[in-house]
Design goal:
Number of helices: 6
Number of strands: 17
Distance between the termini: 43 Å
Structural class: alpha+beta
């Protein structure tokens, strides 16, 4: 990221879940950073946007600020914390403005017009699994957020830069354009090995990931509606916005889509297992 010039202001507008986010970037470097992270969702300016941020670097140093109307100013010490805080605040605001969607903390990919959701706690390997699948014919929806339209049972895309906490195993090496921070690795969408899907996609299956270093290969089992609903609820971000504190929505999704527990040990084997389950 190049150093910002004093007084330089650039605007960036994003379209996410049919809502518009306006970003006033104080410094070309900050604009380039957000463009790398969210540029696939860039859209022509809309006035006024649904959400508006002012972001920039603090005194041209390593720190950053994030401001939004009605929100206390957020300060970040470096790029990693800046991206984390911005993503967190944006996710919460999007949930408020699209409370009709059921937000799941999950990755999502597309194959043959069908969406597959990969749900798991942080650190389980959702993003790494997604990175592997994108090399094997799957297309990108999201690696972190999977909002489901309950009426249409479709997954909305959220194609920000795919974010890994550590380097992936061979042969799925990272491109040279990877944005490396002190804690994370961000791969801009235009450098992914597969294109991004930019429209809601019918949900076909949910996979609840487990990772066990002592196991080899991949192991999958179909789970019951009750077990799937309970796991969905555990990975939901806005359950209280829905009837029955989210339980009704979780049951509805579990009834309509096939649900599996997937143990991932060998990333090269995941593609065939997921593709077979989707079929």
């Amino acid at each position: 990221m190049r150093e910002p010039r004093a007084g330089e202001v650039k605007l960036l507008h994003l379209s996410v879940f049919d809502r518009t986010i306006g970003l006033q970037c104080e410094g070309a470097g900050v604009h380039e950073l957000l463009l790398a992270a969210y540029g696939r969702m860039a859209t022509p300016p809309v006035s006024p946007p649904d959400i508006f941020y002012s972001v920039g670097q603090v005194n041209a140093g390593p720190g950053f600020f994030i401001t939004r109307a009605g929100q206390e100013r957020l300060l970040a010490q470096d790029v990693a914390e800046f991206l984390f805080l911005f993503e967190k605040d944006l996710t919460i605001e999007l949930q408020r403005r699209r409370s009709d969607l059921f937000f799941i903390h999950a990755a999502a990919v597309e194959c043959d017009g069908k969406a597959a959701i990969m749900a798991a706690p942080s650190g389980t390997g959702k993003s790494t699994t997604t990175w592997g699948l994108l090399h094997e014919g799957f297309r990108y929806l999201s690696d972190e957020l999977a909002p489901v339209d309950l009426e249409k049972l479709a997954v909305y895309p959220y194609p920000h830069a795919l974010c890994l906490k550590s380097g992936p195993p061979s042969p799925y090496t990272l491109p040279a354009a990877t944005l490396r921070t002190s804690e994370t690795l961000h791969i801009p969408v235009k450098f992914l090995p597969a294109e991004a899907v930019m429209k809601p996609t019918p949900l076909a299956a949910l996979f609840f990931l487990n990772r066990d270093a002592s196991e080899k290969g991949c192991r999958i089992r179909q789970i019951s509606i009750g077990e799937a609903a309970a796991r969905l609820l555990a990975n939901a971000l806005n359950p209280l916005a829905h009837r029955g504190d989210g339980l009704d929505a979780a049951i509805h999704i579990a009834q309509q889509a096939r649900c599996f527990e997937l143990h991932v040990a060998e990333l090269t084997e995941v593609s065939a297992v997921v593709r077979k389950a989707l079929a």
